[in-house]
Amino acid sequence: MELTLSWYLSLSAVLFTIGTLGVLLRRNAIVVFMSIELMLNAVNITLVAFSRSMGDVAGQMLVFFVMAVAAAEAAVGLAIVIALFRKKETVDLSRFNLFKF
Amino acid sequence: MFSQLFFFFFAAVAIASGIGLIVSRSPVSGALWLVLNLFCVAALYITMNARFIGVIQILVYAGAIMVLFLFVIMLLNLAALPKMQSVNWRLVVAFLLGMFVLAQLMYVLAGSLDLLPEPTMPDAASGSASALGQELLTRYALPLEITGILLLVATIGAVLLARRKFE
Description:
The complex is a heterodimer. Chain A is mostly helical. Helices cover 77% and strands 0% of the residues of chain A. Chain A has one domain (5-93): Helix Hairpins (Orthogonal Bundle), CATH 1.10.287.3510. Chain A has helices spanning 5-25, 29-54, 58-88. In chain A, helix 2 runs antiparallel to helix 3. By secondary structure, chain B is mainly α. The longest helix of chain B is centred in the middle third of the chain and has 26 residues, at 51-76. The radius of gyration of chain B is 21 Å and the shape is globular. Classes of the chains: A mainly alpha, B mainly alpha.
């Protein structure tokens, strides 16, 4: 059995789905953030698999930039979580309805 | 044969630790499951000949980002969230939506695999730091600079957002 591109793409799809389920199921804002990181990772697996399959380093460069954006996203997102925690003393997403009026 | 075993072992551990992340009670153990997942993904990158990306994955993701997550979890001193009552419909809808996403992804995968261009030069892409650095500082120099500005903006934004305001 050959280890082909489709195996890596299937693993990526499964990990992406787990991340989606985490975002939909969990109410803890920090766990939701970690699930988003999981989804970003699943996409990175796809990019690296295509990079190997095509013999082109462009996919790996894209992974590099995705990681930089993920770091920026985590910093800003966790700062938002801290600001929300100051306001409401909780990170339970079902308790936040700031846009409701 | 050896590489297949390697792939299936790390893929299984990655999926198991992903599930561990979304079912774990406390955010700290969820973060530790995610660290295990990131290490497995880094191992898969290294098997795919992307050594630089694998090392960066461990340094940036498992090192920096997860330490930031754990730091914030400790800082907020979270009590465990109360158990959900009478929201079983929400679990069911979320699960169905997740399965829908998986079905869509698998459908696209199965349908497009024969549309993909043939692997032209498999393993021709060297994932070494020197090859990537050469590309990064010549062809991708402008995106690199923009990424630097993005990280600066994110740092300033995080400091401003997390600053204590006395109102």
